[in-house]
Amino acid sequence: MSTAETRTRTTPGLVPVPETSRATERRPPEPPAGAVPPRRSSSAFWRLLGSELGLTFRRPRNLVMLGVLAGVPVVMGVALRLVAADAELGGIVTSVAGNSLMLTFASLSFLVVLLMPVAVAMVAGDAIAGEAGTGTLRYLLAAPAGRTRLLAVKYLNAVVFSFAVTAVVALSALVTGLIMFPVGPVTLLSGTTVPVAEGLLRILISVGYVGAGMAALAAVALALSTFTEVSIGAVAGTMVIVIVSQVLRAIPQFDGLADYLLPARWTGFDGALRSPIDTGAMAEGLLTFGAYIVLSGSVAWARFSGKDITS
Amino acid sequence: MTREAGAPFGAAPPSAGAAIVTRGLTKRFRGGQVAVDSLDLDVPRGSVYGFLGPNGSGKTTTIRMLLGLVAPTAGEHTLLGLPLAGALPRVGALVEGPAFYPYLSGEANLRRFDAADPTASGATVRRRVGEALDRVGLGAAAGKRYRNYSLGMRQRLAIAAALLGPRELLVLDEPTNGLDPQGTREVRALVKEIAADGTTVFVSSHLLAEVEQMCTHAAIMSTGRLVAQGTIASLSGGQVSRVRIETPDPAGAARVLAALGLADVRATDAEVTAELGGHAPERVNAALVGEGVAVRGLSVVRPSLEDVFVGLTGEGFDVDG
Amino acid sequence: MRKGTFVRWGVPIAAAAVIGAAIGAGPVVAAVSGDPALPERSAQQLLADAVAAVERTDGPLPMSGTVRQTASLGLPALPQMGGESPLALLSGSHEVKVWYGAQDRLRVAMPTHMNETNLIVNGDEAWYWDSDGNTATKIKIKAGAGWAHEPATPAPTPSDLTPQAAAAKVLAKAEEHTAIGVTNTAEVAGRPAYQLVLRPKAEASLVQEVRLALDGETYVPLRVQVYAKGSAEPAFEVGFTQVTFTPPAEENFVFTPPAGAKVEEQTLGEVISDGKAGEHTGEHTGDAKAAKDLKVVGEGWSGVVVAPMPDLGSLPAEAPGGQGDPAEAKALLDNVLKSATPVSGTWGSGKLITTKLVTVLLTDDGRLLAGAVTPEEIVRVAGTR
């Protein structure tokens, strides 16, 4: 750890370096020789993950995406408020107008179809392909980040982003709902009424479930990302899979297939809105997500660990 | 390799063995095209090793194989006598030009790559990044976004990234590419300075002059094959020096040189050249003067690497690539 | 390629194999391990056991589970059917959740995306809840009329002294039209089950056989499959995919209309249940009137219902308080009619709609004939006024 600075002291710089002395003064006292503990690989892993998260959540493109996702529930809330004022409408509109917490479920239900998958695919599809495209991948691997380790960090980062996307939608919807609609006991889909606290708990369950569903999509996007050096290709490929799944799901002849399609499972968060909570269906959904994660993850690993990095 | 006490790399002692050894290293790409063919490199510790060859001769592919970016089709290699994962933290690399995150500052970029090194400490990253930036003269531009860097600054940032930790080996692929003469001079000075510190430097170049100026050793690549390697002196030794004498009496001079035992004497209107062999130039001069041959000028023409290259491959060297 | 390419790709291949195995585990395990082992039973013994089990526990056991209904009747694709419409049950598969506490404590929920319809019966009070309409319908049941109509349980009369006698009586009555037997055991909802096979004797019937799976332990019917002639897969199937025989939580049978919901009331004298024509005596005068005009030609499996063509706009909503959308029904009918084949005979002409299980003939003189019979049979019935 101290070699670099020792070297700087013993050898003059290439060009005058007026800042060296300041930097030297600033640094903490050196540990005695030999007392440096061996680096634990786990802390190095978290450090790389921290760097990855910093990159993801500081990247302007991703922030814009999150902003748009946060904006949709607000727009929905305003629109429903205006509509609910003068019309007798059934279904979700009535529920939302009747209770502030319902806007969260309505927003998730609406955004989980397309917009949230787009946001997640943009980050996860970019994970490897983006680095390969800019050439930074070769420097990360020469650092050496380690292929399996880098892939794991990239995936965990995408998982965190998946949950962040879901949480942003839920939070924005919750705040909008609390401002625009009355707060009170929540009527579940089964017609049962639960207190606000339990309603919030059920929002939490929904966020967890949808987050897991988005994490499964992130695994698919990551796998595609290892096959290309053009990140937009991986993103588009992921969205094609999502849309084809949506179409297959709508065709009655493929009814048996629907249980294994991600988009069909994403909407399963409404199990949290039933009484009792439909744990069976939600557990099946989580198992499906798990299967996608294991399968896509292993494909990504098999591809990436053997890939020639020529970019 | 000597290193000051108190400056170990992590807990591990400096590795022993040659800096780079490759045996039969071969890369055949999917189209069947052989980029590197049975490469046997021996890069001694502490050398500044020039990896010379025209563009497309397989230099970059070799470097990618050395760093584990590309899997060899056949053959093996070691860096610093260690398995690759253990060696790479001790190796700084610049591969095929700089590549950074355009929306991050130079400093943030270096922190990012430092985080990817599992042996680097997050506690010292601030200091090490600062020092690396200062070392390449980017201290003042540390906070500037990479997309606003000039070409030379980008190249220097890439070198700074290679200097983030204590390195035993520096692999620099065309480090002066795209630099102006001033930048080129700076990089060459930096390489010399790093080498003076005991670090082995493996520098690829398509510029003969650059390698001749910077390096102690060199390897010459041509279309994926290694044509020659060794110290610069021994490489040049393969081609003999010639003595060149300017004289109004070429015939007399030629006679004297032949009498001295110099081989391959060639005479023209105003000068005579011959292979110098083991003769000292001053003795040749003395002999000429002693025989009454007027000498206007005498010089020894040492062979350049280019001559070596042409001599070995029979091809011209594509200097500008 | 890097060494170990095959090893590396072995990992996703193994993962795919494991996942595939997990998905196909049920059928594969069933195929490998064969049918579950249960003591041999004849049809009569089985029915006797079932009746005995019902008597022992004073009615069917409390249970809860998921029922999946799958219909592949061979109807033309239905356009944009809302999941909540009863008509949607005619194609594809649907799941309902059932909580059964006792004869008068029942909850049936049909969950669809962001929506749920519920029927909750508790004593003499019943609620129908539709979350999409935010409507709770209170259904009053007139005294004397019971909700108990577990369809497949043979109902013994007090005169049947022993289960054996009851079973014998049921069998004797049924075997007039049906050959009853026992086939290999099956696994339904993870439980070993006996399979009773009812095979129509009538030649004209479209039904090959009906399989009734009875739980090997409790004799509760777990699945009904209707096979059409010439088809290896059931045309209609309803059965548990998951079942537990423990009393469901009490809260399932308690319903209080949520604040803000529309509350409606409806009184029923008797439930429109078994679909037996001519027995509708409720307050639905329209139904009663229609029932008068209904007649059944033929007996047993080859019975054909003959009725005057109903007004398309007033197709009855099947569920109590259900939101049977006339427009939707009309769309369905139009779609079905498009695929109808014109037929004619001495009796006149009409349009014939054939599915795997049901044949319907709409005659031009305004009659509607329907039955689980071959087109030839229905055309023959049309000729016999």
Automatic annotation (TrEMBL), chain A:
It comes from the Bacteria. The chain crosses the membrane at residues 63-84, 104-129, 155-181, 201-224, 231-251, 285-304. Keywords: Membrane, Transmembrane, Transmembrane helix. Residues 1-40 are annotated as: Disordered. Residues 1-11 have a biased composition (Polar residues). This is ABC transporter permease. The lineage of its organism: Bacteria, Bacillati, Actinomycetota, Actinomycetes, Streptosporangiales.
UniProtKB/TrEMBL annotation, chain B:
Keywords: ATP-binding, Nucleotide-binding, Transport. PROSITE patterns: ABC_TRANSPORTER_1 (PS00211), ABC_TRANSPORTER_2 (PS50893). InterPro entries: AAA+_ATPase (IPR003593), ABC_transporter-like_ATP-bd (IPR003439), ABC_transporter-like_CS (IPR017871), P-loop_NTPase (IPR027417). Residues 20-248 form the ABC transporter domain. GO terms for molecular function: ATP binding; ATP hydrolysis activity. It comes from the Bacteria. Belongs to the ABC transporter superfamily. This is ABC transporter ATP-binding protein. The lineage of its organism: Bacteria, Bacillati, Actinomycetota, Actinomycetes, Streptosporangiales.
Automatic annotation (TrEMBL), chain C:
InterPro entries: LolA/LolB/LppX, Sporulation_related. This is Membrane protein. The lineage of its organism: Bacteria, Bacillati, Actinomycetota, Actinomycetes, Streptosporangiales.
